[in-house]
Design a protein that fits this description.
heterodimer; A: 275 residues; alpha/beta; Nitrilase/N-carbamoyl-D-aminoacid amidohydrolase; seven-stranded mixed beta sheet; six-stranded mixed beta sheet; 15 strands; 23% helix; B: 278 residues; mainly alpha; Rossmann fold; four-stranded parallel beta sheet; 4 strands; 52% helix; globular
Chain lengths: 275, 278
């Protein structure tokens, strides 16, 4: 029998523009998660730097393969796999909003955010280059795909990862909240619909880790979710407060659902017209 | 097409959630700034009452310093209402009369000044005292300006619109009323006619020429939803009122974008180099 994967979602606040504070924060959460038996701990988008960096973006950029800043996290990844967020510099003058999978002491996978929101309060396109590659993480038997926040709103990405073999989609986010007449942040209703629909149509797990805290007068909602293949919410974190959410992920659940709901397998490339 | 009734519904907040979020805003600002609390002026009006109530919830009474800053012509009712708010929140207030400071300037130098100039000076005198008290205690100045008055420019620049942090700046006036009622603030404060109390008998709505409910709805449609004035009027608002609100919004934008700096270097503060304050 497969041992279930124990995932942890670090719904943290992040200190804008401080590696020192954020590395310390990561190490504390890693220790807590490790004590709870977590195999894979996921941090929010740009967890090492904070989100709304604007013209501090370049100052917080690092080249992951050579940066000493990551050393304590790489060391920690020998006992627990990590997904962290940072500003990645490619050495050719382009910065990326990236998520890294750290595992067994090395950088196992990098996902550069593909869709950069540049509207309303979002300004990512001014400071980041868009990623150009979508791939499965080679860790965990190739069952994991990573997306960042806005990427999920472009559903062909989640679909492509599922078709390529992803049974778990990890979505790191720094999603700001709004308040309306409902009991939960208005923005969260849209996110939850999207995440559940993604888990349903792609018949896969979706792990959504969103941050909390304030930057420049705007709050991040939290409300992280673990959604089962088919769209049922398995675990949810509270709004606004820091929280370590853990869940047992049975990858076989994906197979069992796909046996009777073969949506991902039924891909067609021969449809003419608007497709 | 969005109708007037729907606009009113859109402006209704979930009061519990809005309160939690705004308290979290105040608590986070204090925690990350390293300051010990907040100072604010209690005018006896609903805006400062709500700001104070949120701060007390977020920080506790000991970290909220409330000031009553009357001028000699200020209505005694304002002071009584401020006291009712303070007592409701178990806050002790300190009173500093600003009459001498304001009068010294005008009596010795500018005797002919009209009531608007005198009112502006009072607002700035209060701001000046609050920032001094904030410095004295290592606290932040808590703002009390709401979204309606900020958009209409119905405030004194560098006066009552000045603060370190403002929990009310994205709340329309009726949302301020809604939250104030939700938090159980004294009904006499919540239901009284809003007034800047800069001269006897002044009320906001009389001076503005329209009611706050209308202003909120028109501003929501124009500012939040992006409708043009004639499109707003089609939803059932008098065109003259819509035009007046639109004109006020347009002509007071300078009050919401402080520090206009002439750009020379290509690295101008806030224009080329947007560095977050947090």
């Amino acid at each position: 029998m497969h041992r279930p994967l124990i995932v942890g979602l670090a719904q943290t606040d992040v200190r804008l523009g401080s590696f020192e504070a954020n590395i310390q924060l990561h190490l504390e959460w890693i220790e807590r998660a490790h004590q709870q038996g977590v195999d894979l701990l996921i941090f929010p988008e740009l967890s090492l730097t904070g989100y709304r960096l604007l013209h501090l973006t370049g100052r917080m950029a690092l080249q992951p393969e050579s940066s000493p800043i990551l050393e304590p996290l790489l060391e920690a990844s020998r006992k627990i796999s990590l997904v962290i967020g940072l500003v990645e510099e490619d050495g050719r003058g382009v910065l990326y909003n990236s998520s890294l999978m750290l595992s067994e002491g090395r950088i196992a996978h990098t996902h550069r955010k593909l869709y950069l929101p540049t509207y309303g309060i979002f300004q990512e396109g001014r400071f980041f280059g868009s990623g150009r590659r979508l791939a499965l993480s080679p860790t965990h038997d190739g069952n994991l795909g990573i997306l960042i926040c806005e990427d999920l709103w472009h559903p062909h990405l989640a679909r492509s990862l599922a078709v390529a073999g992803a049974k778990v989609l990890i979505v790191s986010s720094a999603s700001p909240g709004t308040v309306g007449s409902g009991p939960v942040p208005a923005s969260q209703e849209a996110w939850e619909s999207l995440i559940r629909a993604t888990a349903l149509v792609n018949t896969c797990w979706v792990i959504y880790c969103n941050r909390v805290g304030w930057e420049e007068g705007s709050f991040y909602t939290g409300g992280s979710l673990v959604v089962r293949p088919g769209g049922e919410v398995l675990e949810r974190a509270p709004f606004l407060d820091q929280h370590l959410l853990t869940a047992e992920i049975d990858l076989r659940e994906v197979d069992r659902l796909r046996w009777r709901l073969p949506l991902v397998q039924a891909r067609r490339s021969d449809i003419e017209g608007a497709s | 097409m969005i109708r007037r009734q729907q606009v009113r519904e859109r402006l209704l907040l979930n009061a519990d959630l809005a309160t939690s979020v705004l308290c979290s805003f105040i608590a986070d600002a204090i925690a990350t700034s390293g300051c010990g609390g907040v100072v604010l002026g209690l005018s006896g009006g609903v805006d400062s009452a709500l700001s104070a109530a949120l701060a007390v919830r977020a920080l506790g009474q000991e970290q909220v310093l409330a000031f009553n800053l009357p001028y000699k012509s200020s209505s005694p009712d304002s002071a009584a209402d401020a006291e009712a708010v303070a007592s409701h929140l178990s806050l002790t207030t300190r009173t500093i009369d600003i009459s001498a400071m304001v009068d010294t300037y005008f009596d010795s130098n500018e005797e002919e000044a009209d009531e608007v100039r005198r009112g502006n000076k009072m607002a700035r005198e209060r701001m000046s005292i609050l920032f001094d008290q904030a410095k004295k205690h290592g606290f932040l100045v808590l703002g009390t300006s709401n979204k309606t008055e900020i958009l209409l420019g119905y405030s004194t620049i560098f006066g009552d619109n000045a603060s370190s942090i403002n929990p009310l700046g994205d709340l329309y006036k009726q949302q301020v009323w809604q939250l104030a009622e939700h938090l159980g603030l004294p009904p006499r404060v919540v239901s009284k006619k809003p007034s800047a109390d800069l001269w006897p008998g002044q009320t906001d709505e009389q001076e503005l020429g329209f009611e706050y409910e209308v202003a909120d709805e028109v501003l929501y449609l124009m500012f939040d939803r992006g409708l043009a004035p004639d499109e707003v009027a089609e939803r059932g608002y008098p065109l003259e009122v819509v035009k007046k609100i639109s004109s006020l919004e347009e002509h007071n934008r300078f009050k919401r974008r402080l520090m206009l700096i002439a750009r020379l270097s290509g690295s101008a503060i806030n224009l080329d180099r947007e560095i977050p304050r947090d």
